[in-house]
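Supplementary Methods, section 5.1.

A reviewer requested that the exact input to the structure prediction be made available. We therefore reproduce it here, unchanged from the version used in the analyses.
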Amino acid sequence: MKRNVFGALIVAGGLALWTSVAGLADFTPATAKAAIATCAATVVLTDPATLTGEAATEAKDLNAETTIGLAEITAEANSSIDELAAENADEDGEKDARAVSAQLTAIVDEACQSIANLTAEYTAAIAELKAESTQPEAKQTDVEKQDVEKQDVEQQDTEKPEVRSTEREGND
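The structure derived from this sequence is encoded token-by-token as follows.
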């Protein structure tokens, strides 16, 4: 099994374990936010310096996009947690602690699953970049030169001048 795929499986397995354990936890808004931060911290970005040329540039861009994606997922989940906490505080009687914890658990599970999906996409894209950067480039120029030389030879064969006799017929 390749190293990247193995690493991705470990990360995905860890996130799956985390979300299953999170389902057993009693969350408060603070612990729910901490759980989401822990999920986000499991994402390890590849150093673009390990790649060369265009692959390094694409990896840098991919790292930026992934970082933005993590920030968006975390911000959205934290916003949902804050809304839930505000609803709970606004109501005359507090919601049942189990109901709030269940809703917080759902938010954490969804955020961690989104992070796991983002990580899987990132890992696949980096693996593709690494594979592309290690493949030698095809030498198109040699093939093109050979084709041009063949065309020149073919043209020379077909462009033979017509030879006419200089003798006149009918002078007997």
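The chain has one domain: 3-156. These observations are discussed further in the main text.
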